[in-house]
Each structure stands twice: as C-alpha cells, then as structure tokens.
C-alpha cells in the first residue's frame, strides 16, 4: 500500500509547504526554499512510519479509501517529512527551520483525528467497515452493532466480513498449538519416541535426499516420505469485484483421466480401485478424501488424518499467488465442482483438529471456511460459536455476532442464542463489576431470552447431555417446555445440530446451575404473563417462515464427535479383488505395493501386525483360503 499512498501524501505536503512559504519572513526565504526542496524528495525511512504494521497490505486495497481519508493525510505526513528534512540539515540552520516549521504549523487547521485512528482509516480494517455506519467511537475504540440497511445482500458488508473473519496464521497448525499447551520439549520428546522401526523403514524406501518439500504451507506440514508435488492442480483468478477476489481450481487432462477412473471405482464401491488411482496419481484429492472416509469408518483414524493432510497439501500447493485466505477477501464458489474438495477437506481437518484438543486451530479453520463462501455450504456458521467458546475467545464471539449479520440476526439462531449467553457469563466472571459497561445485557437475561425463543432446545439438551439433577423433572413437566415445538422444519434441524455439537459444554457444573436458575425464572415469567410466551412465539415464527427444511444439506452426523464404524466384513463387500493392490500406507505415498504378500513379518511389530490384521484390506498371507473356509463353514451365507 506504500507506493500510491505516499505519492498522494507527498503531493499534498508539497502544496501545503509552498502555500505556507508566502506567510514566512523575507529573511527566511532561502532556507524555506531549501527545506521545501528536501520535502519534495521522499525520505527512504519515514515513509513506512505512516503505514506502521500494515505495510504488507496489497495495493489494490487503496481503491476503497474515500475522499475524506485522503484529506486527512497531509497533516501527519507533512509533519513527519518536515521533521526528517530538518534533522538532515546542518546545525547552523536548525533554528531557522524550526521557526519556519512553526509558522507552517500555525496556519494548519487543527484536526480532531488521532494518529492511531488515522492509521486505522488508511488501512482497510474493521474500523473502516464500522465507520461507514457511523458506529466507531474514536476515543474508546468500541464498535457498535451494525445494521443491514442499504446493503441489499445477504450479509452486511464484504469489508466488515473480511476483517472479522481474518485468520491468524500462528494458530492454524495443530503442532504449534500443542506446543503452546504442553511445551515444545514434551511434544518433541513424544514425536521422537513415536518414530517406530516401521516408520523409519518406510522413510528409507525413498532414496536420495529427504526434505525436498520446498513449498511453504500454512495448513499442514508435509512429511518427508510424501511424494514430490506433481503439479496436477492449479488455480486461476476468475474475477475481482468490490474488493473481493474470486478464484477457481482448474484440472489438466491427466487429472481428468484420473477423475474418470475414480468415478468408475466409486460407482462400484471399489476401495482397491481408488487405491490404484492413488498409486498412479498420489495427489488426486477426490481419491484421498474417499480413502480418508474409508479409514475413518474402519476405525483407523491416524491414516484418515494423514490422507486429509495430504489432500490439503495438494490443494494448497495449487493456490494462485494472489489467493490468500488468511485475509478473508478471497472467495471460492462452492457450486463449482472443482472447488468442493477444499471445503470438504477443510471441514474434516477442522474436526480432526478438535478431536486432538486444538480448539483455537479449529476456530481459525472454521473462520477460513466461512470466509471462502458467504453461502456457508458446509455449515461452518453452526459450529464457529462452539469452537470460540472452547478456545475462550468470548470477546471475539460477541464482536462476530455484531459485525457478521444476515437476514435473520445471528442471535435468532439457536446456537448463537445460547452461545452468546455463555460468552457473556464467562466475561462477567472474568471482568470486574466496575469495568462492566452499564448498558450491557447480563448473561442471565440473554439465557432467559434464548430459553423463551427456543424452549425445545432445553429438553433436547437435558436428554443429550444428559443432565440428571432432580430439578429437571419438575422443570420439564411445565407446559411451556413439555409441549414446546419448533414450528418449522428448519428450526428443528438447527436445534438438533446445536444440541449434537454443543451438548458437552452444558456438563460443566457452573453452567448447569445457571441453566436451572434461568429455566425457573422463565417458568415464573410465563405463569405471570401468557402474552410473553406468545410474543416470543411470533418472533420465532417470523424468523423461520419456511415450511421446508432449508438446511437439509447439513448432516447432523457431521457435527457429532462420535464416529460410527463399519465392521470389517461389511467393508470387504465394498472391495473388488485386484492382484497386488491393497490399501496400504505405501498406497497413500504414491507407491505400488509388491505382488503377493504385502510385507515381511520378520521385522514387524507384533501388536501393530495384530491391529492391522483386523482391517479388511490388510492381508499378510497367513490364510489364503479364508474365503473357501467360510463357504465350507457357512454354506448358506453369501460373500
């Protein structure tokens, strides 16, 4: 952003300096001209003082700066440049320059804008998106809730959304978060101890130097034994509109051929056929996603995680030079089939991060998912609140609810109704009473509003958690909770998603007691005034009017922590016999398995081999006639 901005600043500063010279004394004309000449030449150092920490912003963001911001630049910039030019002169001319400088500043109009606010306005940040709605307090720095007036779209402002969904790269990787939690020494010791003999032998299959992954990635760290990136994917810039860059993935002819083979294997439920595609094309992302699902349902979660990581590595290597999802201004259309694998891989990667206890990393990935497509095709909006609570990002959650608005305000959604109350509960606990603003709604009021708006959620939370306090029997017998209905298929589906995703957080003792007190107060309110319940029912009906389930594309199982497994004998029916092709770790590495028996048992770990023998695609050749024996033992059973 430095080039065009500084040129404008220097031109305005030059005009200001020339105009002020006519007000100076005749004795100081020579020195004044000399200082103006120095002011015309941009100093190589202080030009970056104007930009501070935002010097790495792209030049295309300058188009969003309005004329009022341009009028406020010359004052501060002129002072900095004149200070540099003064310090660069000999000492015998400093006094005259100080006089001249004082005269210049005496004719400048006083500005109420502070330097920090000016820097924020010059940079396209959250301050700018709030200033468009006159909701920024320049002194306190607080941001007021925005409205949806005048936008005409689904969300308030693209700039505001980009800012609130900007991702911090420091929290993207699980390894970095684990080191912050347990310490680097513990994690390094664990990684060193987990290097088994089989892992070292697998790495030894690759001859030549390791560590040839020279690409710097932000999502995952490539392993040494992964094949070199083959360039089978690429990305192109489709268009740029309103400061947003729209991209799409492109596939060469070789990738399309692999895609046809994958579709043929998928239509016949042939897992070995998918492994064969990976043996020839190790970075075919659809095959990696399918194989990750097969590993997950077979109970081999580590291999499933490895396949997802490898898929993300391939997708990231294909990124366009301008594609930077960290900033929140890059978009991918989910309706394009070539873009779908990135959404699916990020969603599964987010779930894997949470299962490892890396809640902050899962939150950053969720923000990235939500920023890529505003239509939210994978339902990131319905789990971002849970990850922010688990990561203890309470203030960010409240800011997100204020700045990221839709046609239905976020607090009307069941997950945000309860999560915002929980966030306010912990903020009140951690913040002294004297520092709490007087106009802030208390957490108890927010929770009562959530229960009045979504009474059906309380019964489902109690059943799913489960909450076994004796008070719940009496509470759930009340007519307001006993006969509660969603009134809309969409709302009922969203409540089920919220309960499945967030029921664990209600097991905390302090939240259970708080929930009981709020439920008893709601019962008291309903008993005193029946119209209160009718008013909330009208709000609920107005917010969710559709008779169809608008969120039927979101599966409740995708928001669950439990992973269903398929018995090995059932997965065997999904496989077609292909001599020499089995789903082994080497298949993930892009290598062919050897014909016949897949490996030698002489140097293998006994426990590892026992666990591998439970998987349907692992055959160590110990019993080659197992199918024949099953036919003899069970003649009526079909294979």
What is the topological layout?
Elements: H1 2-21, H2 29-40, H3 67-71, H4 73-87, H5 94-106, H6 115-122, H7 126-131, H8 158-164, H9 174-182, H10 184-193, H11 197-204, E1 234-241, E2 244-250, H12 253-267, H13 271-280, H14 285-297, H15 301-317, E3 330-332, H16 340-355, H17 359-372, H18 384-390, H19 394-403, H20 414-430, H21 443-453, H22 455-464, H23 471-476, H24 479-482, H25 489-502, H26 509-528, H27 530-543, H28 568-572, H29 585-588, H30 606-613, H31 626-633
Parallel strand pairs: 2-3
Antiparallel strand pairs: 1-2
Helix pairs in contact: 1-2, 1-4, 4-5, 9-10, 12-13, 13-14, 14-15, 15-16, 16-17, 17-18, 19-20, 20-21, 21-22, 21-26, 22-25, 26-27
* Overall number of strands: 3
Quaternary assembly: single chain
User: Can you summarize the main beta sheet?
Assistant: 3 strands, mixed
Sheet with the most strands: spatial strand order: 1-2-3
**pLDDT below 50 for ≥5 consecutive residues: which ranges?**
25-128, 130-156, 200-211, 577-600, 622-633
Q: What is the radius of gyration computed over CA atoms, rounded to a whole number of angstroms?
A: 31 Å
Structural class estimated from helices and strands? mainly alpha
Shape: globular
Number of helices in the DSSP assignment? 31
Distance between the termini: 66 Å
Strand content is under 5%
Helix content: 40-55%
Residue-averaged pLDDT: 73
């Amino acid at each position: 952003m430095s080039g065009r901005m500084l040129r404008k600043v220097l031109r305005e500063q030059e005009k200001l300096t020339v105009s002020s010279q006519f007000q100076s004394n005749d004795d100081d004309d020579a020195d004044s001209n000399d200082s103006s000449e120095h002011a015309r030449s941009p100093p190589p150092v202080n030009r970056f003082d104007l930009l501070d920490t935002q010097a790495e912003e792209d030049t295309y963001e300058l188009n969003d700066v309005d004329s009022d911001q341009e009028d406020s630049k010359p004052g501060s910039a002129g002072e900095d440049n004149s200070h540099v030019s003064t310090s660069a002169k000999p000492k015998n001319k400093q006094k005259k320059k100080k006089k001249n400088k004082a005269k210049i500043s005496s004719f400048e109009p006083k500005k109420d804008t502070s330097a920090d606010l000016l820097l924020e306005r010059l940079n396209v940040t959250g301050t700018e998106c709030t200033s468009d709605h006159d909701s920024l307090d320049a002194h306190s720095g607080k941001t007021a809730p925005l409205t949806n007036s005048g936008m005409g779209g689904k969300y308030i402002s693209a700039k505001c959304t980009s800012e609130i969904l900007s991702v911090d790269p420091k929290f993207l990787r699980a390894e970095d978060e684990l080191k912050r939690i347990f310490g680097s020494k513990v994690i390094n010791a664990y990684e060193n101890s987990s290097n088994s003999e089989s892992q070292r032998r697998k790495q030894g299959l690759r001859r030549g130097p390791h560590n040839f992954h020279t690409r710097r990635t932000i999502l995952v760290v490539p392993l040494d034994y992964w094949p070199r990136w083959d360039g089978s994917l690429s990305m192109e810039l489709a268009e740029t509109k309103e400061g947003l860059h729209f991209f799409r993935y492109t596939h060469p002819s070789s990738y399309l051929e692999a895609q046809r083979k994958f579709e043929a294997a998928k239509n016949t439920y042939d897992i070995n056929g998918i492994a064969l595609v990976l043996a020839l094309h190790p970075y075919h992302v659809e095959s990696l996603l399918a194989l990750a699902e097969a590993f997950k349902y077979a109970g081999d979660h580590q291999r499933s995680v490895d396949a997802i990581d490898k898929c993300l590595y391939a997708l990231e290597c294909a990124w366009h030079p301008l594609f930077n999802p960290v900033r929140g201004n890059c978009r991918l259309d989910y309706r394009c089939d070539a873009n779908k694998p990135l959404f699916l891989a990020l969603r599964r990667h987010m779930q894997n991060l949470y299962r490892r206890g890396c809640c902050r990393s899962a939150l950053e990935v969720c923000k990235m998912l939500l920023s890529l497509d505003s239509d939210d095709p994978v339902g990131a909006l319905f789990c971002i609140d849970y990850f922010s609570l688990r990561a203890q990002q309470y203030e960010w959650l409240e800011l997100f609810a204020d700045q990221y608005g839709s046609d239905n305000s976020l607090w009307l959604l069941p997950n945000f109704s309860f999560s915002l109350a929980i966030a306010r509960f912990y903020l009140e606990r951690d913040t002294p009473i004297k520092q709490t603003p007087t106009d802030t709604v208390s957490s108890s009021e927010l929770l009562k509003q959530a229960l009045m708006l979504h009474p059906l959620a309380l019964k489902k939370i109690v059943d799913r958690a489960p909450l076994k306090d004796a008070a719940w029997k009496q509470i759930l017998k009340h007519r307001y909770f006993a006969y509660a209905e969603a009134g809309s298929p969409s709302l009922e589906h969203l409540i089920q998603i919220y309960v499945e995703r967030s029921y664990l957080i209600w097991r905390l003792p302090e939240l259970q007691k708080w929930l009981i007190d709020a439920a008893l107060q709601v019962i008291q309110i309903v008993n005193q005034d029946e119209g209160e319940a009718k008013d909330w029912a009208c709000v609920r009906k107005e917010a969710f009017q559709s008779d169809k389930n608008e969120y039927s594309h979101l599966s409740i199982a995708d928001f669950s922590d439990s992973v269903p497994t398929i018995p090995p004998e059932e997965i065997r029916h999904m496989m077609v016999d292909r001599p020499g092709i089995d789903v082994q770790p080497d298949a993930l590495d892009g290598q062919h398995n050897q014909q016949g028996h897949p490996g030698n048992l002489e140097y293998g770990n006994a426990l590892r081999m026992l666990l591998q023998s439970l998987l349907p695609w692992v055959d160590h050749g110990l019993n080659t006639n197992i199918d024949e024996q099953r036919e003899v033992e069970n003649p009526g059973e079909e294979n």
